[in-house]
Amino acid sequence: MRFRHGLSKRRILITGGAGFIGSHLCDRMVQEGHDVICMDNYFTGAKSNVAHLLSYPNFEILRFDVREPILLEVDEIYNLACPASPRHYQTEPVRTVETSVMGAVNLLRLARETGAVFLQASTSEVYGDAQVQPQGETYYGHVNPIGPRSCYDEGKRCAETICFDYRRQYDVQAKVVRIFNTYGPRLAPADGRIVSNFILQALHNKPITIYGDGSQTRSLCYVDDMVGGLAAMMDSPDDVAGPVNLGNPDEHTVRELAELIVALTESKSKIIFGPLPEDDPHKRRPDISIAVEKLDWRPSIELEIGLSRTIGYFRRQLTFDTPS
Ligand code: NAD
Ligand code: UDP
User: Fold this and answer.
1) What GO molecular-function term can you cite, just one (predicted)?
2) Strand ranges inside the chain, DSSP E
3) What separation in Å is there between the alpha carbon of 20 and the centre of ligand 1?
């Protein structure tokens, strides 16, 4: 078995491992031969996302809530546990804040206890409705602390704070990445995010629901690229603590994304316009120069290719879900 960068076999804890990004990270780490513990409470994830890994001897699954303290012998912790779609995190905002903040504290304590390297999945949402474009890591952000998105934005900002405090005060090897919009197979169909919504609407020839006038922008990163960035950050030297932006700088308006998905699915869907949600960021594009320089990482999967794969995934799901 060959390991990344010549590293030996690791015991890896992936919280939120049954979610969208987490399940792809589990795939990669299991394939690399590491011992993987997938921890999840299934708030927004699903066992089916990792069911194919259950027969591997180096994979185990633990139903657990990161808001509770835990002691496990591990070498690396990827903390991905947190609802990520606005629809999900706004359903239970208190639970969202608790998951980000208490989860980070509990897992940083575990890292301190075991000497594990700790990687926090933060988010581009820490920049809020950014007033600079593209967003670089030195930008402090423009976040409403009391709005409907704040449970997520401020929860993640506080999780970042605790990471750097554990680093300074206890010498824990804590690292932070800021993940920008990511898409791919295993996005939850009902999570209300742009890619899952538009693809499902297009496949059903239903209206494509653009919120606002569609001029707001997002930059979409395919999940395999994102997983590569997470692994590269974990394997980086200890002095690379971040925060490091991970995302694809290829920026599109929401309207362009709707039109592209309609074209790729050859759908008959019409585009309709609805109200823009409160505090919806107008522009989002990562500056990834630190990731390129420090991690030698950059995304490589083009939007049309990634979207075609994702459309293929949703088509297969619909075929399986439809009773014959
Ligand atoms: P997801 O909702 O698919 O996955 C999150 C997982 O965490 C789910 O399996 C959920 O059940 C689990 N979870 C939630 N609360 C938990 C708790 N208290 N204890 C244990 N498990 C819990 O979301 P995702 O898109 O895979 O996002 C993964 C991580 O990446 C999140 O931390 C998110 O904030 C971050 N992120 C994602 C994106 C994106 O575009 N997907 C963008 C920025 C940041
Ligand atoms: N969006 C939209 N229609 C949808 C879902 C989302 O127009 O059916 C817009 C949303 O208002 C936002 C962008 O698409 O401007 C991305 O939304 P998403 O929820 O995927 O992620 P966000 O980046 O807002 O967290």
Assistant:
1) NAD+ binding
2) 11-15, 35-40, 59-63, 76-79, 117-123, 174-179, 182-183, 208-211, 217-219, 221-222, 244-246, 251-253, 271-274
3) 7
